[in-house]
Amino acid sequence: xxxxxxxxxxxxxxxxxxxxxxxxxxxxxxxxxxxxxxxxxxxxxxxxxxxxxxxxxxxxxxxxxxxxxxxxxxxxxxxxxxxxxxxxxxxxxxxxxxxxxxxxxxxxxxxxxxxxxxx
Length: 119
Prior knowledge:
mainly alpha, transmembrane, transmembrane helix, membrane, 87% helix
């Protein structure tokens, strides 16, 4: 009878140890899986953040380049308008001077006689 009790106690102890070991292994595996999933999620978040930052930087560079090109084109257009206005004013001044000379000179030319009071 004592032998049977001892065998039962040993079997129960072995079964309890095996069950505890299996539960520990399962718990460790679950913890490892959870940690791996968390690390993967953190890596995904980091990659998404880096991609978003790079895209935003590229877009900002493109926008700055477009703004610079637009400003340069506007400055060139302003310079062209200034040159056209200056040329127009010079032509107007030359035409006015020629008309005044023709009217004052009497149509004979600056050096060809006419109504200059000292000639």
